[in-house]
């Protein structure tokens, strides 16, 4: 019995000393991506419009709130105070309120500017509510720090996630916003995949060793290249569904989304490094937490939305 226990202990220590090989880790990432893509495609392209809208709302809300919880967890690991539950409630209100507005259930959604005005109104209400909360019911040691970290979390996760909703329900492109959502997701994740593969295989020159020791310039170029190629192929295959998209726009967006994905990844790496953790969570095998999955998407969602609104549909 003792020999058996010693054997198990030694095997556990060996497993801890030798982490999964890059090949095994890549297979875990691939499996997680396949499952996730199945959920996303079902939520975006369901033939039943009402079902698709509610699945989309559940998906966006789940991702936004789970990511926000992980962000607040990183703060707690560093002993930084925040109003976690106020942030969670505010995030839900922001996401669900935007959904109700974008789908016309509030009766006032006509143009993209209406959505921006509505979100600005929601954010002002959240900021004022946070100030009142801090003044009346706070038991935190540092009100200033807790207020700032709580508000940043709301903006960093739910507010940026909301741009995916604004793309999906964009009003002036004949209901084809879901194709732009799919395009932006595919190109962004191709950038992540290209950066990982090229950086793992041939990466030697460190990109930002202080922030993320494993990121390399070769990986950055690989990510942008994958995004560029993916953008061109997707645009060719989805002709007629991407309103206003041309080869020139596909080239520009490929570069923008490839670079944006790298910046988003580095920003989240900065947070994790400050908290002293490798992953923001353990929800997805081979990937980590929700923030590890969403870091590049959080940066690219506003890029895609702003390009769609001010360039592709400006005329």
Features of the shown structure:
single chain, 315 residues
In words, what does this structure look like?
By secondary structure, the chain is mostly helical. It has one domain (30-312). 76% of the residues lie in helices and 3% in strands. The protein is built from ten helices and two strands. A hairpin with a 3-residue loop joins strand 1 (206-208) and strand 2 (212-216). The longest helix has 29 residues, at 49-77. The radius of gyration is 21 Å and the shape is globular. Residues 1-18 have low confidence and may be disordered.
Please state the CA-atom Rg, rounded to the nearest Å: 21 Å
Helix-strand topology string: HHHHHHHEEHHH
Number of domains: 1
Shape: globular
Q: Kindly state the number of beta strands.
A: 2
Largest sheet: 2 strands, antiparallel
Q: Strands across the major sheet, in which order?
A: 1-2
Mean pLDDT: 84
Broad structural category: mainly alpha
Strand content: under 5%
The count of helical stretches stands at: 10
Helicity level, as a percent range?
over 70%
In whole angstroms, the N-to-C terminal distance is 77 Å
Uncertain runs: 1-18
Short structural description:
The chain has helices spanning 2-17, 22-45, 49-77, 84-102, 112-136, 143-168, 177-202, 217-237, 247-275, 290-312; strands at residues 206-208, 212-216. The chain has ten helices and two strands, in the order H-H-H-H-H-H-H-E-E-H-H-H.
Provide the fold topology.
Blueprint: H1 2-17, H2 22-45, H3 49-77, H4 84-102, H5 112-136, H6 143-168, H7 177-202, E1 206-208, E2 212-216, H8 217-237, H9 247-275, H10 290-312
Antiparallel strand pairs: 1-2
Helix pairs in contact: 2-3, 2-7, 3-4, 3-6, 3-9, 4-5, 4-6, 5-6, 6-7, 6-10, 7-8, 7-9, 7-10, 8-9, 9-10
């Amino acid at each position: 019995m003792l020999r058996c226990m010693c054997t198990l202990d030694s095997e556990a220590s060996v497993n801890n000393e030798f982490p999964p090989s890059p090949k095994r880790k890549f297979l875990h990432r691939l499996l997680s991506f396949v499952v996730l893509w199945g959920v996303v495609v079902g939520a975006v392209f369901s033939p039943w419009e009402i079902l698709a809208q509610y699945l989309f709302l559940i998906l966006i809300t789940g991702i936004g709130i789970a990511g926000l919880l992980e962000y607040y967890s990183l703060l707690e690991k560093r002993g930084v105070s925040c109003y976690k539950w106020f942030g969670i409630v505010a995030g839900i209100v922001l996401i669900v309120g935007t959904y109700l507005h974008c789908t016309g259930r509030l009766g006032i959604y006509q143009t993209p500017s209406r959505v921006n005005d509505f979100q600005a109104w929601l954010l002002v209400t959240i900021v004022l509510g946070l100030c009142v909360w801090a003044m009346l019911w706070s038991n935190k040691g540092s009100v200033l720090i807790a207020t700032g970290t709580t508000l940043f979390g709301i903006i960093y996760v739910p507010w940026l996630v909301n741009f995916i909703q604004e793309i999906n329900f964009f009003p002036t492109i004949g209901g084809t916003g879901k194709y732009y959502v799919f395009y932006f997701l595919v190109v962004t994740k191709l950038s992540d995949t290209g950066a990982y593969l090229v950086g793992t295989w041939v990466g030697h020159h460190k990109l930002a060793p202080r922030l993320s020791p494993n990121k390399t310039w070769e990986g950055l170029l690989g990510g942008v290249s994958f995004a560029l190629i993916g953008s061109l192929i997707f645009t060719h295959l989805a002709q007629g569904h991407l309103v206003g998209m041309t080869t020139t726009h596909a080239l520009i967006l490929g570069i923008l989304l490839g670079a944006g994905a790298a910046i988003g990844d580095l920003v989240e790496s900065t947070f994790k490094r400050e908290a002293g953790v490798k992953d923001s969570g353990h929800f997805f095998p081979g990937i980590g937490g929700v923030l590890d999955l969403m870091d590049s998407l959080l940066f690219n969602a506003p890029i895609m939305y702003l390009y769609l609104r001010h360039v592709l549909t400006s005329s």
